[in-house]
Amino acid sequence: VQLVESGGGLVQPGGSLRLSCAASGFTFSSYSMSWYRQRPGKERELVATITSTSSRTNYTDSVKGRFTISRDNAKSTVYLQMNSLKPEDTAVYYCRANGRNDWGQGTQDTVSS
Question: Which of 27, 77, 82, 103 is most buried, most CB within 10 Å of its CB?
Answer without folding.
Answer: 82
